[in-house]
Amino acid sequence: MRKVLVTIGMFRWLVASTLLLACEPIVNTFNEVEEAVYYQAAEIITPPETADTLMVMNWNIKFGGGDLNFWFDCYGDRVLMTEEEVLTNLDSLVEKIRQVDPDIILLQEVDVEAKRVAYVDQMQYLLDHTDLNYGVYISEWDTQFIASDGIGRMDGEGNGILSRWPFIEAKRIALPLRTDQDALTQYFYIRRGLLTAMVELPGYDNFHVLTIHAAAFSQDGTKKKHIDIFNEELDKIDATGGLFVAGGDLNTIPPGSQKLHDFKDSICEEEEFRGDDYQEETEWLTGLYESYHPAISLSDYQADNALYFSHSTNPRNGFTRKLDYLFTNSAWVTGSGYTHQEIVSVERALSDHAPVSAQLVLP
What we know:
Mean pLDDT: 88
CATH superfamily: Endonuclease/exonuclease/phosphatase
Shape: globular
Distance between the termini: 41 Å
Largest sheet: 8 strands, mixed
Number of strands: 17
Radius of gyration: 20 Å
CATH architecture: 4-Layer Sandwich
Number of domains: 1
């Protein structure tokens, strides 16, 4: 994401406005740990009382932006969407979700109260238009006003989990901020968090679901810190005998990735969009692969990287790398792991990320 540019005059006006209104700060800086926001569908569909397997899906939905050319990708200059555009794009996401028919879905880049999505609450919309009943959400960018590029009000870029079954608890664990930004940019920038929840799954009293969206473009090791914290939380659950499914957009490619020099994060020329050092990062996920079970095995991925690519800055030209993952300490139905690259067609792309799904084996 581009550096958030705020003039001194704008900054003074924002500070003065905050002092005068005396209601809430401009930026939500979040506590180290806090409760997630809970959602419920308008109509509850009775979930199964027993199950041997669960269909799990992970998807970075690009805040329902589809393949519109936004300013942060440098392919266009769009900042805001109309309500009609947002609902049309969400309906396309709904159609795909219904096709996969997940019992649980992990989401990244969800907006709930943001000018850029015409203030459509995307968590509520997805719940109300799919067969999923309950949701939990954490914001990663909660700011009353962003002057840069006309973004305005922002509560979004967040992580969500939708489930057929209710949640017992859910919390936001704050992740480290980038340190390679000036103080003003850092204050208004995305503040990432790990969403961890317990689901009231029949027959299981210790079933956890976690999702994360790790940092992109950081040049200070922040991304690795996020991945390490994610791994540590999984280790804690596993050590207590808990069952988990976890995943998200890790913004990192797997060990054994080929064609590293063909990856191009962005056509932007700004320093803050400098491409990540994928050569260095190829071993950052080794611990996850060694300790737990990926939906797409490392041997399958290494045999043909391209089958499992899940992201591109310009997806109509094809996906170029794998950034999206599902892991468990149980097992997956053999061969059920799938990367839905078909979300891109000649006509349109539903997101710049392809969803990943797999059938979880319940022990």
